[in-house]
Predict the 3D structure of the following.
Amino acid sequence: MALLGGAILILFVVLFLLTRPQPARNIAEGDRLRAEGNYDRAIAEYSRAIQLDPNLATAYHHRGIAYYDQANYPQAIEDLTHAISLSPNDGAIYASRALAYYAQGSFDLAQADAAQAVQLSPNSAGAYYARGLIEHALEQMQPAEADLSRAVQLDPNMADAHLWLAEVYYKEGKWQDALDHYQRYLDLGGGVGSDYVPRRIRELQMTLGQGG
């Protein structure tokens, strides 16, 4: 009887551990919803994770990204700043906040965060992408070219890095390089619903005598 009682107790503990709320599950569900464009529901999932574990930097980070996706940059920055306070050595969070500062036009703050992201995560394509994007906005073309080139070297499938590298090459008059990266951007599925890049490609093909 004692053995049976012990087995029941162990089973109860196992079932409790398997069914208790897990912040990681909420974050994973939030990530899935955000990828589908369901930002409000994603934010709700991240908020549940935060309720379960108020010290979980990942939940604040991902919720900040969801607010960024909604163009709610002040709220994104607030969440990302809190995430940094919880995980100050995570370069990815600095890169995310750099993009939020960039989006609201706070270029000095954006550049400082991007530099910190690169310092903390020197092998992160996202860190170099963020810094290159900001350098492009500041008309710093040589550093932008170097950083965006490094981003696509680290992650050849980062479509947006190819787009902005193409933009840098276009401004520098490096037509073939610009054409190659615009085309790579489209090949990776970028620019859906927009004629901007296809028009640039046609323009460059004519400039290079490739118009057929």
In short: The chain has a mean pLDDT of 92. Residues 2-19 form the longest helix (18 residues). The CA atoms of residues 71 and 103 lie 8 Å apart. The two ends are 87 Å apart (CA to CA).
